[in-house]
Amino acid sequence: MLLPGVRPSLSTREARWRRQLREGTGCGVRIGILDTGVADHAPGLRGIVRSHCTVGEAGTILTSLRGNDAIGHGTACAWILKQLAPEAELHSVRIFGRSFRERGEKLVAGLAFAIERGWDIINVSLGTGGFREELIDLANLAEERGIVVVAAANNEPGKASFPAELPNVIGVEGGAFGSPLEFRFRAGDRIEVEASGIYVRAPWPNGEFTHFTGSSFACPHVSAIAARLGQGRIDELAGRLRTQLAALGSGPM
Prior knowledge:
This protein is an alpha/beta fold. It has a single domain (26-248), classed as 3-Layer(aba) Sandwich (Rossmann fold). It is built from 6 helices and 11 strands. The strands form 2 sheets. Strands 3-2-4-1-5-6-7-9-8 form a 9-stranded mixed β-sheet, with helices on both faces. Strands 10-11 form a two-stranded antiparallel sheet. A hairpin with a 5-residue loop joins strand 2 (49-55) and strand 3 (61-64). The two termini are 24 Å apart.
């Protein structure tokens, strides 16, 4: 037990964070998934997603009791989140319909909606080369409200992707790791986190499992890691997450 006014040593604090990362379930943490929707009939996802919304034309938000996903991208991301943060509360905001050729306005509208909902973590496994100023404003608003935004980098080296490259967003790229909870943190880099994103096993909406590769699938790994670390003290997560990631990146679980 620590005496009043005595702060834990760095090693004690890191040991506690490492245990939290190993044992956390994301209980009490709300995660918004901005993606292609989530097929709630896919394996392991029936009844898991609490709310399904779609960004329509002119940024209108449509709600539905059931979720669907014509592409499969969002379903795979939701499944990864469910495996790694099984007690987190998931919410879906569908940006894309039957292809990835949607306007950046829908990303902006979807992120604004997710921030207004006040979800603790927003997983953005997509990005755009434009709308930088609008996304800066939204990232600033999320930061002010204590909301963590985790976003995927572009898979093409050197190609810009927002919001992942904004300084108050946790940008993620994919790599190969022995455990889904392992990652690397590079403080000050354009994209700070590298997490498991190569041959990640997850289902298609039709129930068949396959292996996915890309930063999109590394992104939910980091959102789940954040949910584990934020469990029980979610109001402090935004202020300390980078410190935790720097302390735990590439270390033993």
